[in-house]
Write a structure and sequence with these properties.
By secondary structure, the chain is of the alpha+beta class. It has one domain: OB fold (Dihydrolipoamide Acetyltransferase, E2P) (Beta Barrel), CATH 2.40.50. The protein contains four helices and nine strands; from the N terminus they run E-E-E-H-E-E-E-E-E-H-H-E-H. The protein has helices at about 30-35, 80-85, 90, 115-125, and strands spanning about 10, 15-20, 20-25, 40, 50, 55-60, 65-70, 75-80, 100-105. A hairpin with a 2-residue loop joins strand 2 (about 15-20) and strand 3 (about 20-25).
Length: about 130
């Protein structure tokens, strides 16, 4: 499995890539492998506010439906339309083309409390 070290991770298996005040959010390689074939992603439109540790959408796979949890608080500024139209991208490229939303973070320092790559690997037993 792949775990980029330039990302921060949640205990709920989301990741965030922070660049200035912006953050790109998706699910980890581990999460997509546990879910199986992703068939549907439901996420709010641009302009929606998301709150740290609260559900902001769902991801449906052959095996299960799971909530998506916000790693930080902010406002969605872009939704990855490709994932909405072709959810299987999440299985193929969870850290690249499989990102779900881009947000403007209300408090970028919230990301400092998230797991680094080593802590995330420990969490999942890697």
């Amino acid at each position: 499995m792949n775990f980029p070290d330039n990302l921060k991770y949640t205990t709920e298996h989301e990741w965030i890539r922070v660049e200035g005040k912006f953050g790109w959010i998706g699910i980890t390689d581990y999460a997509q492998s546990e879910l199986g074939d992703v068939v549907f992603v439901e996420i709010p439109a641009a302009g929606a506010k998301i709150e740290k540790d609260k559900s902001f959408g769902t991801i449906e796979a052959v095996k299960a439906v799971s909530d998506l949890y916000a790693p930080v608080t902010g406002e969605i500024v872009e939704v990855n339309a490709e994932v909405k139209d072709h959810p299987e991208i999440v299985n193929k490229d969870p850290y690249g083309n499989g990102w779900m939303v881009k947000i403007t973070m209300s408090n970028p320092t919230e990301a400092n409390a998230l797991l680094d790559v080593q802590a995330y690997k420990t969490l999942i037993g890697q």
